[in-house]
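Hey,
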Amino acid sequence: MKVKTPTKKEETARILSSIERVCVDLSKSTFHVVGLDADRKIVFRKKFSREAFLGWLGSLEKKVIVVMEACAGSQWWGQQCQALGHTPMLIPPHRVKPYALNQKNDYNDAEAIGEASRNSKTVPVPVKTLEQQDLAMLIAARQGLIDDRTAMANRIRAFLLERGIALPKGISVLRCQLSDILDDGTNALTQIARSYLREMQAQLLELDGKIEEIVLMMQKIASLNAVAKILQTIPGFGPLVVAALVAVIGDPKRFKNGRDMSAYLGLVVRQNTSGDKIRLGGITKRGDAGLRISSHPWGPGRSPMHRDQRRGKDG
């Protein structure tokens, strides 16, 4: 009896139907994809362009787990996978590195991503909503403007110090005294120096205005979020730290308890225990450093009421 040989189209359909996980090494324009079946065997390898990969995902009849490294652009791809009915899984890069055992190439990187996703201790990065992305973008933009403002203030201080004018610490002191210094005709500032320092003062005030605009936008978004409304009822939780929590944490129900969330933020004690010797250090400082700093009792994200209470308590 003659055995019918499957056609190329039938063989391709069989392979695609056996794929359980699509492991992809993301880049800007070319993506290397490895498909794993239920037995963790590689049954598919292919290089796609950006547009072709999205079209290929949409053509899959079977819904699969799409595994990728949590990197620039991965959040958008996770959202696209959800829209197509697939299950995205974003793996932290430090979890992938131990599985990259062979030569460095894109296909091996995709395999390492797939192996890391199989580890039960690997906690995937959740896919952000558009609201969370907006908040994360505003937080990063605000921090960038604060850095620019600090650099501008330090530059002004340095120019003044070269003319024998020393100012105390604090940007508020600089704001209050700079106009008087520029109006004082008895100091060593020349007309050119005064003109340029006034221009720098205008840039400093402009940065202040942009930072305040971003804060107002963050407050508006936080006022419309159900989780943010609840968090703002906690004493000391102002709109900035609440916005940061919503942007980073998202749905708090993904944590079993408060300690799990504390461990995620790096607030639990670091352990270096072996045998009967128990060694406990400071906090682990894992997770988002910016969120951890903003939620500190003396951090910039605390509400004015909480800071005033701390000042009163400390004397």
